[in-house]
Write a structure and sequence with these properties.
- The complex is a heterodimer of chains A (151) and B (80).
- Chain A is an alpha+beta fold and 151 residues long.
- Chain A has one domain (2-146): Alpha-Beta Complex (Aldehyde Oxidoreductase, domain 3).
- In chain A, 40% of the residues lie in helices and 32% in strands.
- Chain A has four helices and eight strands.
- Chain A has a four-stranded mixed beta sheet, sandwiched between helices. A four-stranded antiparallel beta sheet of chain A has the order 5-3-7-8, with no helix packed on it.
- In chain A, α2 packs antiparallel against α3.
- Chain B has one domain (2-74): Beta-grasp domain (Ubiquitin-like (UB roll)), CATH 3.10.20.
- With 80 residues, chain B is α+β, with helices and mostly antiparallel strands.
- The relative contact order of chain B is 0.31.
- Chain B has helices spanning 10-15, 31-41, and strands at 2-7, 19-23, 51-54, 57-59, 70-74.
- Chain B contains two helices and five strands; from the N terminus they run βαβαβββ.
- The chains are: A alpha+beta (151), B alpha+beta (80).
- Chain A binds chain B through residues 33, 47-50, 52-54, 56, 78, 89-90, 110, 113-122, 131-135, 138, and chain B through 6, 8-10, 13, 53, 56, 72, 74-80.
């Protein structure tokens, strides 16, 4: 399940849906990303995306996760539009027979999503508006999976 | 022939439009040539970090466009 939506989501309902759909799973791992306000100046975080390409990029990430780990169909929600500090931005939930696969696949999907899905964030603060650049730490986190796979 | 051009993120703001249509006369249909044509009109597009997607797939400048294609220009992504 993949949804790009403006509406908020209920993480407990997503968890229940994962549990219901799980195929004899022994583990569910989920991640929720929140809007941070590091300088206490945030009025809004605006997220925009490239409809169609965002979905296909995330589907590709899910396909590669399924090839690497034994997981069921993940549930992924990414919000777009105007958000406030503390709001939920993203949900990634993965169920698997084994916890190791669920942990790793969830982290992999999130790391890849941050560097491959066509989404962009703009911070609106008291000082004005600023588009956020991709962070080198996010790129490094995504690239380290290449090393893990190649070893 | 005609190609749909899209801009996202800070590029949409610096260029001042999100979407436009351009006509291509002649045989030069390379993505790089279209990019140069757009840079001439909007100097802010002269930025090596810009990504280009042809029909929603990331490409470099070597590919050629066809009539009705969708060509998108955007900065590195920052979702999640």
């Amino acid at each position: 399940m993949l949804a790009i939506q403006t509406e908020d989501f209920d993480a407990s309902k997503e968890y229940e849906a994962l549990r219901k759909d799980a195929n004899n799973a022994g583990a569910i791992v989920s991640f929720v990303g929140l809007v941070r306000d590091t300088e206490q100046k945030l009025k809004a975080m605006v997220l925009e995306h490239y409809p169609g390409m965002t979905e296909s990029a995330i589907e590709e990430i899910v396909d590669s996760a399924k090839q690497s780990w034994q997981i069921d169909e993940p549930r992924i929600i990414h919000r777009v539009g105007e958000l406030k500090a503390g709001d939920q931005i993203v949900f990634v939930g993965v169920s698997s027979t084994h916890r190791g696969d669920a942990y790793q696949a969830c982290e992999y999907i999130m790391d890849q999503l941050k560097t491959r899905a066509t989404l962009w964030k703009k911070e609106v603060t008291e000082d004005g508006e600023k588009w956020l650049d991709s962070k080198s730490s996010d790129i490094e986190r995504a690239q380290r999976w290449n090393k893990i796979f190649n070893n | 022939m005609s190609v749909k051009i899209l801009f996202f993120g800070r590029l949409a703001e610096s260029v001042g439009i999100r979407q436009t249509e351009i006509s291509i006369e002649g045989n030069d249909t390379a993505v790089a040539s279209i990019q140069q044509q757009l840079i001439n009109q909007h100097p802010s597009l002269d930025d090596p970090s810009i990504r280009i997607a042809l029909n929603q797939t990331l490409v470099n400048g070597d590919l050629n466009v066809s009539d009705g294609d969708e060509l998108a220009f955007f900065p590195p992504v920052s979702g999640g």
